[in-house]
């Protein structure tokens, strides 16, 4: 895999791993890191040997937020030109499932990055928050929208208006994360989850991910119509025929992604 300066990448069987790697800056998300991350994700998405993706940081910090030194002193026009936020939307276009393995501080843009993934596995030490109010701004990459959809209005209001930080267990109870594990096992468990997903039918995985995300963006009527069409479309795939034949023949299916 290609060399990067702000992330580390590797492949573990059918799972691709991208690790945020700016330790001196607490993995602060600057333009270079975000561009490298998106480039890696796009490469993973195009690789047929990869079935799922994990994004992680270190045990002490997933990402402490956006890089303030990159934003301080800029005007609204200059921030639009910097355009870091568009990367978060592009992450949502990746068709393969993405699991965030989160430990330590997951704040601001870090929390927004985790929420851009499809699932979050957290360590018991994880802390989630949107502290942008302390800087005189608001979350700009999903921290008011995705957070509210995940945890509800009451908790989201407290987090964005008053910098309330929530623990991993609170995040689990609120529906922000999928699972919480001890520090020494959360990463392995995230890889295990991604590994289990990675061997499933690729076309069906992509369709499932797209449809669940649509549920947040469209009316129930429109979402059901698109879900129904995606369901029918898969009956023209080789994987559908293989999956059903394997079930009837009581054997393990061999997916082709076609």
Keywords:
alpha/beta, 12 helices, Lyase 2-enoyl-coa Hydratase, Chain  A, domain 2, 10 strands, 2-enoyl-CoA Hydratase, Chain A, domain 1, 2 domains, four-stranded mixed β-sheet, six-stranded mixed β-sheet, 258 residues
What does this structure look like?
The protein is 45% helix and 16% strand. By secondary structure, it is an alpha/beta fold. The longest helix is centred in the N-terminal third of the chain and has 16 residues, at 31-46. The model has no long low-confidence stretch (mean pLDDT 93).
Class from secondary-structure proportions: alpha/beta
Largest beta sheet: strand ordering: 1-2-3-5-7-10
Tell me the span between the first and last alpha carbons: 25 Å
Architecture of the largest domain, CATH level 2? Alpha-Beta Complex
Brief summary of the model shown:
With 258 residues, this protein is an alpha/beta fold. 45% of the residues lie in helices and 16% in strands.
């Amino acid at each position: 895999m290609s060399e990067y300066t702000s992330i580390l990448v590797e492949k573990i069987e059918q799972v691709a791993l991208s690790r945020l790697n700016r330790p001196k800056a607490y993995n602060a998300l600057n333009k270079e890191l975000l561009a490298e991350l998106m480039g890696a994700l796009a490469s993973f998405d195009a690789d047929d040997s990869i079935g799922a993706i994990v994004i992680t940081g270190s045990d002490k910090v997933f990402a402490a937020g956006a890089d303030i030194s990159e934003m301080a002193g800029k005007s609204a026009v200059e921030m639009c030109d910097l355009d870091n936020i568009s990367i978060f939307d592009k992450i949502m276009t990746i068709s393969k499932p993405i699991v965030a393995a989160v430990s330590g501080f997951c704040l601001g843009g870090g929390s927004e990055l985790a929420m851009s993934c499809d699932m979050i596995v957290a360590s018991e030490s994880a802390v989630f928050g949107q502290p942008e109010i302390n800087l005189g701004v608001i979350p700009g990459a999903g921290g008011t929208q995705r957070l509210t959809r995940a945890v509800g209005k009451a908790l989201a209001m407290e987090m964005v208006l008053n910098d309330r930080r929530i623990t991993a267990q609170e995040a689990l109870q609120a529906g922000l994360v999928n699972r919480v594990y001890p520090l020494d096992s959360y990463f392995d468990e995230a890889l295990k989850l991604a590994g289990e997903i990675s061997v499933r039918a690729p076309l069906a995985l992509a369709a499932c991910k797209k449809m669940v995300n649509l549920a947040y963006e469209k009316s129930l009527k429109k979402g059901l119509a698109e879900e129904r069409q995606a369901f029918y479309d898969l009956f023209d795939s080789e994987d559908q025929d293989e999956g059903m034949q394997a079930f009837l023949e009581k054997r393990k299916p061999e997916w082709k992604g076609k």
